[in-house]
Amino acid sequence: MHLFYTPDIAPAHPQYFLSEEESKHAIRVLRLEAGDEVQLIDGRGGFYNAVIHDAHPKRTILNITSVTPEFNKRNHYLHIAVAPTKNIERLEWFLEKATEIGIDEISLIITQRSERKEAKVDRLNKIITAAIKQSLKAYHPILNDAVKFNQLLALPFDGQKFIAHCEPGDRLDLRKVIDPQGRYLILIGPEGDFSPAEIELALESGFKPITLGEARLRTETAALEACFEVNFLNRL
Amino acid sequence: MHLFYTPDIAPAHPQYFLSEEESKHAIRVLRLEAGDEVQLIDGRGGFYNAVIHDAHPKRTILNITSVTPEFNKRNHYLHIAVAPTKNIERLEWFLEKATEIGIDEISLIITQRSERKEAKVDRLNKIITAAIKQSLKAYHPILNDAVKFNQLLALPFDGQKFIAHCEPGDRLDLRKVIDPQGRYLILIGPEGDFSPAEIELALESGFKPITLGEARLRTETAALEACFEVNFLNRL
């Protein structure tokens, strides 16, 4: 299968022109020819079958032969807000793995104990795009620009809101409190966890405290654990 | 906390001498002094509290003050046999993450479609050791040398045996077939999955076929998903 990510295509289009870069890749690298089949995903759930009409190395023309909307649509909505790791590669692999396992939206939050105060979203988005192509996903997870913890708490979210932390106190088990096939926003702290003040503020903002088990997990592992649990608990 | 991995210590020992390398790290790098507290793990479940008796930079002497055997003993035994990934870094992060989440034994299997036919266990073991120190585990997962797929099938294993694959046919859901707090051996295939012949051979050898969900996962992600599921299903 030869899959291309083409966010500017729409289901109504009978034809599509690959970008110069994609054309070069298709014709020069993959050595595709007129009549060969390729697939396109638009990142919004659309999965397209197409045939190469003109194998032009700079402006390949495709005829769309079929469209599947809402391809492998997920049965829930998962938004994870995580503090970027000091070592950016750890955040990068979380994004790749979460995309494979299943996630809809990621926010990067700058917290009191964050060692990293910023993250380049463009580069991170390229990793997500590579992951959806590799794992054959028609929905492109949304990656939001980094915001301060307080700003994120203030954003409206229609669904269940959780904060995962390691401080003492009652923490709920997702297995017991999650609404099946719902919408979830989960906060994951930095190395060193959220500060007690941040946790207090989150609880006041309607977030419920959860545990991800007794194991001591790195930030990116905790974020992936949350992603895994939500997907597993929603698996039919 | 200053944690050292000291596999040669035993609960009966009243004192312990750090290796030259560990001594240098403790005294020159961490700048620890006589009277300072440190912790030791022996990799077999023993967690030790100790106090520096002689802060010698090449031969630091520790007095053991207390020992906790079976520290955070897991309630099940998980052995994952996985085909080493072409890109060794992907296997390395699986080992780090599985150690954080919880695993007891890892075998590396060379399969029909394996692009990588070998893997240096020494280097991989260093990654596991770093992970147990980071995640405060007193048990050091066992990493076995790479063996051929057929050889692994022939090894005796007292517990449930599963093979995760993506070929057509009935595949079971771990949630429905796993015996709680049991012993499990799970096979994870290479990029390109196990061959139908390998799957057949595994079934004949008493392995039950399982699915890890509908998502298309990379080898290392599938192995971690299996690790997640087993730990999650055994979480009390």
UniProtKB/TrEMBL annotation, chains A, B:
The keyword Ribosomal protein does not apply. Residues 77-227 form the Ribosomal RNA small subunit methyltransferase E methyltransferase domain. It catalyses: uridine(1498) in 16S rRNA + S-adenosyl-L-methionine = N(3)-methyluridine(1498) in 16S rRNA + S-adenosyl-L-homocysteine + H(+). GO terms for molecular function: rRNA (uridine-N3-)-methyltransferase activity. Keywords: Cytoplasm, Methyltransferase, rRNA processing, S-adenosyl-L-methionine, Transferase. Its EC number is 2.1.1.193. Transmembrane segments: none annotated. One of its GO terms (cellular component) is cytoplasm. Specifically methylates the N3 position of the uracil ring of uridine 1498 (m3U1498) in 16S rRNA. Acts on the fully assembled 30S ribosomal subunit. Belongs to the RNA methyltransferase RsmE family. This is Ribosomal RNA small subunit methyltransferase E. It comes from Mucilaginibacter ginsenosidivorax. The lineage of its organism: Bacteria, Pseudomonadati, Bacteroidota, Sphingobacteriia, Sphingobacteriales.
